[in-house]
Amino acid sequence: RDWSSDRVLFRSKQWYQRRVRVNRCHRGQRDGRPRCGEYANLPKRHERERLERINRIMKRESGSMPCDQDKMPADKYEICVKCKNGELEGDVCAMPKCKQGDTECEECMKKGGRPDQCGAEGGTPPEEGGNGDVSNIVFPTLDNSTCLSISWGTGREFTADNNFGNCMKMTTNATHRFISTNNVPNFYMNPYCPIGLGKGYCIQAEIDAGKCFFSGLTCGDTNNGPGTNDYGDVWVPQEDNYAIKLEGDPTLPNRPGDMYDASKVGAAKTNGPTVGVAVNGIGIQGPNDAGDVSIDGAGFQLNCGGHVTPPMGNEDTTGEVPSGPPKYHFHKAAECMEAFTNASKGLADGAKPNVHAGLVGWATDGFGIYAYQDINGDKPVVDECGGHFGPVDTGEVKYHYHSRVIVPYTLACQGPALGKCANTQRGTNYCHSGCGYEVCVQPGTKQSDLEEYLAKFDEGWLSKYTVNPYNSAFTPTATLLALITSVLLLVLH
């Protein structure tokens, strides 16, 4: 046999024969034979390479391993120190960077966060019913040299390995999560103009209504200030902070609430136009831009459901529109995020379109925002705010919101809606059509699970409102209904 032309490119016949002996020993085909002794404890090649890779990473990062005696259990601290000193190697040293004292670290990683986004302690939570002030809250610190000093020119050279310059850190205490972000997306974006290069920033309807706040700006004019180049506007890193409850209360007496409110739900934020924040730290804004026209109504084309604000770094504003350079934010569903691609990328690539969607972010009122599909991949039955009661991706029943392809894209008010969403709208009504009842529950939800969830807040709350039928013993999915319809049509023929 011509070993030099073998398609596997074995270097020598001797090496190949040795590999065969090793494999046979591992498969138990040569147990007890004399030559197996020297290979008995030899890991298979792919396993050996994996362990070597772990060891290389640990040696490279040994200086930054979080061996914190005050926050680690004694056994974990001992292992950590031995890994740093090279006394231990392999899987045992592949420890997460998050601090062991952080009760939400594992949950953070499970729901899309990176280990370095999860911290151990948060600050003093804002007062419920206060003014949403963040001045007395301790937020996690962003590294100025890496997170707040980068530019689009250097960030566009980044890759998925370093998150394209994105920085988001989160800490928690017993009641709140505290988030610091540089508002840089963890994906690439091109220079952007909402209407076109060389054009302004307002559609004619906004101009006619006197709602154009950017009349002196032309997209692509480098005199606009930071964040503008010859091809349009690009992001500029800017720190924002959020303090959001770990768990929202759906039984608050002031529900539904204004989608932008923070103070009435015990939250605080520095980015006023947001209704929540995504797991990657990008702010989620309402369905409209500065004017009172929805994104689709204005005809704006968005990159992954978002774009940058107009360049107001050189503008003296009156306060109705915040000044500052372009800041990236979401309006519509961020379909490039994993919570969406996990269902859309195709079954051959491991898509899971028939399970409850993953977490996209957190609304300011503490409820989770999830991607499109509900349990069994069904369409969510939501109230006028855009939320409902039902199981989430973990199986727990909670009140939560779903992203939608239609206005308001995420939420129109802080729910539950209770049939009063229209009362929360400041101008244009962005409310969903609802489910026809004051409270909406996803069909198939177990009544006992719903009652157990609500009992944490107000056991008798649900009895005060009308509720859609949801607790049938058999709830057919959309696919099954289509199959039944097809069979009936065949019978009729």
Q: What do these coordinates show?
A:
The structure is a single chain. With 493 residues, the chain is an alpha+beta fold. Helix content is 19%, strand content 12%. It has helices at residues 13-26, 45-60, 74-84, 105-110, 144-147, 152-155, 204-208, 295-298, 338-344, 447-454, 478-492, and strands at 168-172, 176-181, 228-229, 232-233, 240-245, 257-258, 268-269, 274-278, 283-285, 306-308, 328-330, 359-363, 368-370, 387-391, 397-402, 413-414. Strands 9-8-12-13-15-14 form a 6-stranded mixed sheet. Strand 1 (168-172) and strand 2 form a beta hairpin. The protein is globular and about 65 Å long. The termini are far apart. The model is unreliable at 1-13, 29-35, 37-43, 57-65, 95-103 and 108-117 (pLDDT under 50).
Shape: globular
**Largest sheet, spatial ordering of strands:** 9-8-12-13-15-14
The residue-averaged pLDDT reads: 80
Strand content: 5-15%
Rg to the nearest angstrom? 27 Å
SS field, number of helical segments: 11
Biggest sheet, open or closed, and with what strands and sense? 6 strands, mixed
Q: Tally of extended strands?
A: 16
Weakly predicted, low-confidence segments: 1-13, 29-35, 37-43, 57-65, 95-103, 108-117
Helix and strand pattern: HHHHHHEEHEEEEEEEHEEHEEEEEHH
Helix content: 10-25%
Measured between the Cα atoms of the first and last residue, the distance is 66 Å
Q: Which structural class best describes the helix and strand composition?
A: alpha+beta
